[in-house]
Sequence to fold (347 residues):
Amino acid sequence: MQEGFTCFMISNHRTRLDWMYLWSVGFRFGLLSSMKIVTKAELRKVPFIGWAMQMFGYLFLERKWEVDKQFISDTVTYFAESESTMSPLIFPEGTDLNEKSRAASHAYAEKVGAPKFEYVLLPRVAGFRHLLTQLGNDVHILMDITMAYKDYVRGERPNEASLIAGRFPKEVHIHIDMFPISDIPTGEEALAKWLVERWSKKEAVLKAFYEENKSFEGTPYRLPVIKKTMMLVAGLLQLVLHVMGGVALFTDAWWRWWFFGWTAVYFLCSQFGGIDKFNVWMHMFIRSKLPAHMRPKRGDLKAAQAKSIFKKIIAAKGQKSGSAQLSKPSQPSTTEVPGTVDSKKTQ
Fold:
């Protein structure tokens, strides 16, 4: 990818661990450093993992719209004015797929007159639309991701317990459709319709995948399988580092004070909003005290430039892009780029 390339990523949310597998997508597209996952606020307080997420600048939402709306706006402003790139990953379904969430999705779909899905949940548009609107031309491409798994045991969705037990999915299939951000509708109704159309397609694709054992369309690209010897070496190295760190806690006073000191800082910060929220708040506070002419200016990449970047990306892959067909309900919302990425990861 080109330097400075940013992307808005949306994905279905089959399991609680989807975001971990999507790190691989971010890495291969050169987006890992700018990838900001939108997740629930409870994860902010998880020791070490949640604290690392704070440092990465992930967006933690309280699921209280008025609070989240302002926080999203302030966070986007913070990244834009601090000259940091931001490629958000959001799960419009709001939660992972399970029996309880599926029932809630069906009830909501019946209430609003929307289709009922079995392999995805009905997406919510409010947070997605607000984040997309706030980013404006600071993001170049929208990446629509569809994930499917060949489970370790049929019907067993990956979760934290299975991860610890080493029960990884046999394969992770990822299909990506890419669109110039300028081709995405901005009106609330039009965007909601576009999003439901995309999820309707995901439902059809995933139904064929799970019920008929059909692979995704496009030319598949299988990621190289990591050799067991490399995994063993990496595991042993990690074990050695953990043992050395544990020994140092009992033998080195400086290391002990440093470790427990920073643990206390992160623990206390997490109880009062987190490092990420403090950074955003401090930026907005200082910004409010500056005269308008002294405030940082957001970058303004014009739509034409963004579309040009999109075409170069697709051309580099030897594929063709098309123009949007957003005004015709009977047609797909936009011409897709089939098979941009269809990867399999074998554990």
